[in-house]
User: What shape does this take?
Amino acid sequence: MIHCQLLIDGQSVPASDDATYEIPSPASGEIVGQAAAATSNDVNRAVAGAKKAFAAWSTLTAWDREKIIRKATAHARTKSTEIGRLMALEQGKPLHQAVGEVSSSCDMIDYYAAEGVRIEGTINPTEKSGYHSWVTYQPVGVCVAISPWNYPVALLAWKLGPALAAGCTMVVKPSPVTPLCATAFGEALIEGGIPAGVIQVVTGPGPELGDMLVKHPNVKKVAMTGSTAVGKRILESCAPQLKKVSLELGGHCPAIVCADADLDLAARVIAYKGFRNGGQSCSSVNRVYAHRSVHDGLVSKLRGHAQSMTLGDGITDPAVDNGPMATAEARARVEEHVADALAHGATLICGGARPEGDAFARGNYYLPTILTGATPEMRMMREETFGPVVPVAAFDDPDDAVNLANSTPWGLVSYLFTRDLATTFRASEALESGTICVNHGAVNTPYGPYEGWGDSGYGLELSRQAIFEYLKTKHIKLAL
Ligand code: NAD
Assistant: This one.
């Protein structure tokens, strides 16, 4: 049994009333860990400590912060296997994927450490002699990072990276499902030299704890990744104090496969984006629109990928492609969506059930699933399934496919498969989402801004631009 405490002012401490909660294994249902359940006293202590640490951290030069951050990530990298194991244990993804997530999270934080020294202001020509004008940027102060369970360390790194580089301090609130790996990551960065108070981690039941943090008057910015419903609630909670907010929310990502597409490539990418991490990704392919002339060929190739995927406990069997889904609730939603699609006339091509056998009996496993004949009436074509399910619909006119792709309130990522340059340009410009991937599925890169349009977000993460989410602008004008 693993015990995880709060991380406040560089110390690992219990909740002020010693309360804890249990972490079940998604692979077996057994209780594998226990995490502290932070109280309002703990929240106040964490924010107060972060505010105190801000005074020193924000006045270091960006060069000094870069050195400290890089030393800390170098240390955290040495703990990748340990932290990855905790992630695999509580979230269910295979160990090698979890370990990879930890080391790529360190790379992301390093990317921002290097960007910190490039936060440049401007000196402006003025309308009158004797005036002097310059624009500069200053860190906002104490930030809160609220993260989900699907990529529990990576999505913290996307927030910690720009916040720390900009000179902010951060109180981290991981998802209650994955407190162990997030806390261990924070601990590793502190062990590696991030000063006490610059990163605080508080764990506990999500809505209450998150709400206390978001509304805390000394918190100046909230960065959250999670569902659209919770994101909207957070925005409302921040409104009375007009806090800076960035939200990366749900997606309902379409993939359009044109008549001239490379079908092997399209099937490989769609299977990867539809099934990897059990389909529990904001950028999962949620619906496929395939040109009628290639529909059957694509579905057959997709079925080949789905049926060759291996499922199992990714700790005891590190070679598996997918582990169990993270929670029983997540699997129940998938089952509801599949039943709804079948009731509305979809055809099941493969999957659509829990795998059989003793090895799967106690875990939240679900088979990679493909359905055809998908229509807009089906819930999975309108709501995020967040599971390993790929519904396919046929189209005749590419303009119809783009209209269908744009027909939901979300706008996170759209995938397009074509070899035609004119189609690439026309469709890329017409698709209403913040990210367009043409002929690939490598969605997130440090240099590329990731903005969810519509119900998929507010503000952005990743790229140089994200650092400005953690800065205030100041215009200084002098008359001499
Ligand atoms: P969730 O919205 O249930 O929870 C997200 C976080 O918010 C958790 O830490 C939770 O404890 C916290 N929270 C809940 N209520 C709160 C409140 N009232 N105030 C403050 N915090 C509160 O999401 P989840 O189930 O953990 O994650 C899955 C969702 O995340 C999916 O919708 C997925 O699409 C989305 N997601 C988006 C991105 C992206 O970059 N756009 C990336 C990954 C996941």
Q: What stands out?
A: The chain has a mean pLDDT of 97. The CA atoms of residues 142 and 470 lie 10 Å apart.
